[in-house]
TrEMBL record, chain A:
Keyword Ion transport: yes
GO cellular component annotations of the record: plasma membrane
GO molecular function: ATP binding; ATP hydrolysis activity
Domain ABC transporter stretches: 4-240
Protein name, per record: Iron-dicitrate ABC transporter ATP-binding protein
SMART domains: AAA (SM00382)
Location(s) in or outside the cell: Cell membrane
Family indicated by similarity: Belongs to the ABC transporter superfamily.
Principal localisation: membrane
TrEMBL record, chain B:
Annotated source species: Pseudooceanicola nanhaiensis
Segments passing through the bilayer: 78-96, 108-128, 134-151, 163-187, 207-225, 252-277, 319-338
Superkingdom of this protein's organism: Bacteria
Gene3D superfamilies to which the protein is assigned, alphabetical: ABC transporter involved in vitamin B12 uptake, BtuC
InterPro entries, sorted: ABC_BtuC-like, ABC_transptr_permease_BtuC
Keywords, ordered alphabetically: Cell membrane, Membrane, Transmembrane, Transmembrane helix, Transport
Protein family membership: Belongs to the binding-protein-dependent transport system permease family. FecCD subfamily.
Lineage: Bacteria, Pseudomonadati, Pseudomonadota, Alphaproteobacteria, Rhodobacterales
PANTHER family referenced in this protein's UniProt entry, alphabetically: FERRIC ENTEROBACTIN TRANSPORT SYSTEM PERMEASE PROTEIN, FERRIC ENTEROBACTIN TRANSPORT SYSTEM PERMEASE PROTEIN FEPG
Protein name: ABC transporter permease
Subcellular location: Cell membrane
Gene Ontology MF, one: transmembrane transporter activity
Membrane topology (UniProt): Multi-pass membrane protein
Length: 268, 347
């Protein structure tokens, strides 16, 4: 199983350093969710892990080998990434989009093969997009469109899949649809999944491993039960909260406490 | 992971082949149209030359009269039109694809104007000719591309800023062209029109040779990199995640596209809007879904060939090809700018 890890990672944009000496090993075969307030460095970490951003110091390793020593296609066969806002060209069909996921498996000499068709079919099947294969991406709902993008990343058939806020801009039913799909993939293919999520409760419910970030560092990591506590929410988000077991999943669930709308006994 | 039913894989393959066939058929149709255009321009000008005579001239047989009108006048003109049109069409569509915006075409953002200014400077003021002019034009095109890139850089390059900077640079370079023409010891209206709007008047086969070589070299490079250009349409991050070496491939694509545009421009001048129009027209014909590299090259060739024919024989009076393509391109440019304005910068 592939191991992705970062050591003493320092990274940022221009002269703005965001990550300051961060160590992190992605638990293989598990679902990891990275949470934290805006600008805490979640996406920056994900971009470093995917080699979209070159670290200022420290390094990221894949199976003990520095990430920058992999060729572009070689890396793309091992590690997939779905950016936060990918761009779909006008009029592209689902099948065409998903086919792009096979790019790293083709060289100058090895052209499209029946195995590529089978990989595309597996990705369409796994995401429930088989019946929509001929549709234009523009004609899909938000959840379907996100499933099409995930199908593209799946067709890459990498051991690790990184997703930057895969549920943003989706309404709640589509958020659940996408997260359920990711769990299916993890369980059936053993794909290691790392995703940045905004919603703490969905993160606690769907992830095996939770990473909370604060000011470019990892503030807490471990099982959702160990990480999602009232103390963590206060430290990381500066928010008072009540954490209770989610009656539907048994995982911790965070209820924010504001200045208004509280029952008196809670407010006190 | 359970294996997906083979029937789905078969359906995927059938869909893929059907789309590929559709694209091949569209490109084949355009190729036929281009051949028909070529046949027309070779046989019918001020006078009609029977197809048999045209073929004999092409085969190298001396035919009184036809050898001159077809062999020395019409053929070089048609060959140069086709080669330059292909260069403009291919160079243009690659820029539009990579920057995900039809306005990001080399003839809109000043790259053609840069090559043209360098060529007119070298030819008119320095008395250069041939390959050295092409090399200088390519260098100027790359210099303009680099200048636009640096001037529009602010934590990355946004398409809209790049286009605005490019339009400004294009305007400056066009005034350079006008200035050089004014300083020229002797110049004709024909020369002026060539460097301001593009023309294939007085074409010779020797002139067409560098354009052919540039098409073979740069065009071949672009076709080899078409997969990368295609994936850049999905955004830089997605392309990189799919295994495209972004920095290297983008540099090579810009180099090749600028090379195509600049070498052709050094011979014909910046034939107005061919780079800009070919991609969108080709996309209409082949259907969306994939960047139409070869169809855009064929469209460019057909555009220049037909526009030149129209400028010579169909319109009252004679106009260089750039005037005709300019008249075609201007309304589309206005339409795109209005639409970009309405969508807040998104194409």
């Amino acid at each position: 199983m592939t191991i992705l890890s970062a050591a003493a990672l320092q990274a940022g944009y221009g002269d703005r350093t965001i990550l300051r000496g961060l160590d992190f090993t992605v638990p293989p075969g598990r679902i990891t969710a990275i949470v934290g307030a805006n600008a805490c460095g979640k996406s920056t970490l994900l971009r470093c892990l995917a080699r979209l951003l070159r670290p200022e110091a420290g390094e990221v390793q894949l199976d003990g080998r520095a990430l920058n020593r992999f060729g572009a296609r070689d890396l793309a066969r091992r590690l997939g990434l779905l950016p936060q806002s990918p761009i779909a060209p006008d009029g592209i069909t689902v099948a065409d989009l998903v086919s792009h996921g096979r790019h790293p498996h083709q060289g100058l000499l090895s052209r499209w093969s029946p195995e590529d068709d089978r990989a595309v079919a597996r990705a369409l099947e796994a995401t429930g997009m088989a019946d929509l294969a001929e549709r234009d991406i523009d004609a899909l709902s938000g959840g379907q469109r996100q499933r099409a993008w995930i199908a593209m990343a799946l067709a890459q058939e990498t051991g690790i899949l990184l997703l930057d806020e895969p549920t943003t801009f989706l309404d709640i039913s589509h958020q659940v649809e996408v997260l359920d799909l990711l769990v299916d993939l993890n369980r059936s293919r053993g794909t290691t999944i790392v995703m940045v999520l905004h919603d703490l409760n969905l993160a606690a419910r769907y992830a095996d491993h939770l990473v909370a970030m604060l000011d470019g560092r990892i503030s807490a990591s471990g099982s959702p039960e160990a990480v999602l506590t009232e103390a963590m929410v206060e430290e990381v988000f500066g928010l008072k909260s009540l954490v209770i077991p989610d009656p539907t999943s048994g995982k911790p669930m965070m209820l924010p406490l504001g200045r208004h709308g509280m029952r008196r006994e809670v407010a006190e | 992971m359970h294996a997906a039913p083979d029937s789905l894989a078969t359906r995927v393959a059938v869909l893929r082949r059907r789309r590929a066939r559709g694209r091949t058929r569209a490109a084949g149709g355009m190729l036929l149209l281009l051949l028909a255009g070529l046949a027309l321009t070779l046989s019918l000008g001020q006078s009609f030359t029977p197809p048999g005579d045209v073929l004999r001239v092409l085969a190298g047989v001396e035919v009184p009269g036809a050898s001159f009108t077809v062999g020395a006048l019409r053929l070089p003109r048609a060959v140069l039109s086709i080669l330059a049109g292909m260069s403009f069409g291919l160079g243009g569509v690659v820029f539009q694809t990579m920057f995900r915006n039809p306005l990001a075409s080399p003839d809109i953002i000043g790259i053609s104007a840069g090559a043209s200014a360098a060529a007119v400077f070298a030819i008119v003021l320095l008395g250069w000719s041939g390959t050295t002019v092409s090399v200088l034009a390519v260098a100027a095109g790359l210099g303009v591309a680099a200048a636009i890139y640096l001037l529009s850089w602010r934590n990355g390059v946004a398409g809209a800023r790049l286009i605005l900077v490019g339009i400004g640079i294009a305007a400056m370079l066009e005034s350079v062209i006008a200035y050089v023409l004014l300083r020229a010891p002797a110049w004709s209206l024909q020369d002026a029109l060539r460097w301001l709007t593009g023309s294939v008047n007085g074409a010779t086969l020797e002139q067409a040779l560098p354009v052919l070589l540039s098409l073979a070299l740069f065009g071949g490079l672009l076709l080899a990199l078409r997969g990368s250009a295609e994936l850049m349409r999905l955004g830089d991050d997605t392309a990189a995640a799919l295994g495209v070496p972004l920095a290297r491939d983008r540099a090579l694509i810009v180099l090749a596209a600028v090379g195509l545009i600049a070498v052709a421009t050094a011979v014909t001048g910046p034939i107005a809007f061919v780079a800009f129009l070919s991609g969108p027209i080709a996309l209409r014909i082949t259907g969306p879904g994939r960047a139409p590299l070869v169809p855009a090259a064929l469209t460019g060739a057909l555009l220049v060939l037909v526009a030149d024919y129209a400028g010579q024989h169909l319109l009252p009076g004679r106009y260089p090809v750039g005037i005709v393509t300019g008249a075609l391109g201007a309304p589309y440019l206005i339409y795109l700018i209005i639409r970009t304005n309405r969508t807040g910068g998104r194409p």
